[in-house]
Structure prediction request, 426 residues.
Amino acid sequence: MAVSVPPAVADVRTRTFRALYEAHVDFVWRNLRRLGVHETDVEDRTQEVFVVAHRRFDQFEDRGHGPRAWLFQIVLRVASDARRHRRRHPEDADGGDALGRTAVQAPQADAILRREALDRLDAALETIEVGRRAVLVLHEIEEMTAPEIARVLGIPLNTVYSRLRVARTELETALAAQGGER
Amino acid sequence: MSEPQLSPATRSLLRAAKTDAPSAAARAKVWSSVASAAGGAAAGAGAVGATGSVSVAPAAASKMLVIGTLLGGTVTVGLAAMLLRVTPVHEGQPPASAPMATLAPAAVRPIAPIVEEPSTAVPAAVTAVAATPRPLVPIAGTAVLPPGPASNPMPVTVRPQPSVDDTLAREAGLLAQAHAALVHGEPRTALRAVRAAQALPSHALGPEELSVEAQALRALGRDGQANDVDSTLKKQFPDSALAH
Prediction:
């Protein structure tokens, strides 16, 4: 069955998805990291998120929350898979290539300090159960409101508040334990 | 959301996290991989447009083509190609934005039409966007849109599900890309492509995917994982020729 595909249609679809990618790749990337995806895996997992998004692109229905809510649900699943995979295969996921890339980047002092700060934050976040961590990350980093988070995660509003309260305390405790208040 | 308050030091760490983002090179690289893994529909619109007409791949023919490619069976590939009624994309010329540009054309060309095959149904969302032009990011360069909660380039839509054949064609295309990457000594690219294929819902080519995954892992020196994948292949598909 031969089917004609108007070039303009394919082009518009491509541009629309590319625009989605450009607008949200940072969001996907940093949330994968905060949700426990290792530095060496994050490129592959970011790709995975957008491949899934592309597959479901035509089914996406914006219910007023924008694509971030939709993408975050994919991020949650991909991050969960990545953590599970890493537990089973603790060795370097890409043969050390990503570490090599890090090593050849310009060793600027502020970049190193920033990297260290993020490593401390991620280590502390690792200690927080992922459901609470997701609430904390969405509120404190992505600046979503509690009702928005409730819609994104599909949980009651009061659960958002209680998870956030506990997660904040856990984060402070974890940072204090590693000397994070220096 | 006011209690308990976070300390200034913690807030400082969270502020740093707000600006965490991939480098420009990483963004471009991931996009390239996404475009490639997404079956070329994202990156290969130019090639599709050049042909103007593609054939829908019957499931059996797609599978036969991939198996034929993997096993190197010329007759099998030829039969599958006939069944698919594939129209070559500009014989001798790669697509304008070929995602696997580093691969030799000879290895890629026979499978390229499958990779470039778009969804056969015209998306309602796309139709809506086409009818009502809106500002979009230019594709040719590496233009970057600033991220932000307000940016929403997605059209609002409810659309029919993609057909099984369409999904299988994508799976077949990804698997063929993975194999081609292996042949050209790019096991990491092969691994990405095969993992993308495994993420698709059709899973009609499970044994072939596991086989290529094991080869890619072995080429990366990850023999332990490769052996695990081989074991999975033998356990899940004991009757497959690839399991022996």
Observations:
- Residues 164-183 of chain B form the longest helix (20 residues).
